[in-house]
Amino acid sequence: MSPEVVARRNTRLYYAFVLFNDFGLWFGIWIKYLVVERGLELKYILLMDLPFWFAVAALEAPFGALADRVGHSRVLALGAAVYALTILGFGLTTNYWMLFADYMLWAVAQACRSGADQAIVFDSLKAAGREDRFARIAGRGFALTMTGGLAGIVLGGFAAATWGMTFTVQVSAVTPLVAMAAALLMVDPRLTHARRPYLEQVRSGFAYAWSHPPVRATMLLLTGLLMVTFAPVVLVQPFLIVHEVPTGLFGVFQAPVRLVGLAAALVAWRVTARAGRDRVVGAACLSVVAAFAGLALWDSVAAFSLFAVPAAVQGLIRPTLDAYINEHTPSDRRATVLSVVSLAFSVQVGFLEATLGFITDDIGIRAAFAFTAAAFAVLLPPLYFAWRRVYRETAAAGTR
């Protein structure tokens, strides 16, 4: 097949992969399922995220390097298969040991995907001379991720109310198998890479990410923003439980938030092209801190609307900064470097989730929101200004 045909094929299959892999009836109810149906405590559920994210951190770069060597499509397919097994395991969990085993499987699935899905698309476009389309495709891919999540959350709430939470979680294992088939149909593009020994591939990915200021500054800022926009993943359902929202309406509440993220992802490339990356990123840092401060101060079920802010920020920022990292990374190390980004996120978010779990259980949900706002009000400004300085210097150098 010609590079143009491969690029079109892989783009379509990438869309199918992210849609089906992220469609999950279980995701909008899984915390309530574990707390109510299985009798587990939120703080210990989220404490499991600490070893989970450490496992992801340990596996990110090795699986990224493996994808660079044996093919992104094979590693993606492996990850989707393990993810299906993970979800089925959640549906059968009855104690903390089983839950721990499920989290370890989930870590493998997460590490297999990190970086490889975007790397195969970018390399395919580069081989066809169309890498300029990556930011738009990444935005659409993220939008499809949000679409799959949106549909799964809405249908999952109704399914749980009708057939029970346990069955809803168990049946969610089917769609990742469809994603696995899509990954196996992808064709790895033929690019001339300098083949390095496995450990050297991992080392060079770390070295490149840290020694190149545009990649290093973007990686640090992106991981900070990803953490603050990830906080709703563990706080949305406790918020709905505290405000006594019925299970059948969990999806109805979460759907508009997902729609905001979806819309933001679709227009991310256009917004950043008009306003500029630095302005969009700066506004994102300010708005997420303000949103969590509002959630801490506003004790009402209507405050749920503020969750739309981190959703919008994630939709705008992820494709924007991912594209910037791809633009400054050579193809033979792209999956490895993108995995380093995910690794940096993984190391930090495990502590954040465990902390939020104990604060929510022992103090209250509003205290968790206040902690998030305060922590990122301190963290994000220095990361942003350091990134903006490098970004503007790099842009100025490129115009000379």
UniProtKB/TrEMBL annotation:
<feature type="transmembrane region" description="Helical">
    <location>
        <begin position="43"/>
        <end position="63"/>
    </location>
</feature>
<feature type="transmembrane region" description="Helical">
    <location>
        <begin position="142"/>
        <end position="161"/>
    </location>
</feature>
<feature type="transmembrane region" description="Helical">
    <location>
        <begin position="12"/>
        <end position="31"/>
    </location>
</feature>
<feature type="transmembrane region" description="Helical">
    <location>
        <begin position="220"/>
        <end position="242"/>
    </location>
</feature>
<dbReference type="InterPro" id="IPR036259">
    <property type="entry name" value="MFS_trans_sf"/>
</dbReference>
<protein>
    <submittedName>
        <fullName>MFS transporter</fullName>
    </submittedName>
</protein>
<feature type="domain" description="Major facilitator superfamily (MFS) profile">
    <location>
        <begin position="1"/>
        <end position="391"/>
    </location>
</feature>
<feature type="transmembrane region" description="Helical">
    <location>
        <begin position="365"/>
        <end position="387"/>
    </location>
</feature>
<feature type="transmembrane region" description="Helical">
    <location>
        <begin position="248"/>
        <end position="268"/>
    </location>
</feature>
<dbReference type="InterPro" id="IPR011701">
    <property type="entry name" value="MFS"/>
</dbReference>
<dbReference type="InterPro" id="IPR053160">
    <property type="entry name" value="MFS_DHA3_Transporter"/>
</dbReference>
<feature type="transmembrane region" description="Helical">
    <location>
        <begin position="280"/>
        <end position="298"/>
    </location>
</feature>
<dbReference type="Pfam" id="PF07690">
    <property type="entry name" value="MFS_1"/>
</dbReference>
<keyword id="KW-0812">Transmembrane</keyword>
<keyword id="KW-0472">Membrane</keyword>
<dbReference type="InterPro" id="IPR020846">
    <property type="entry name" value="MFS_dom"/>
</dbReference>
<keyword id="KW-1133">Transmembrane helix</keyword>
<feature type="transmembrane region" description="Helical">
    <location>
        <begin position="75"/>
        <end position="97"/>
    </location>
</feature>
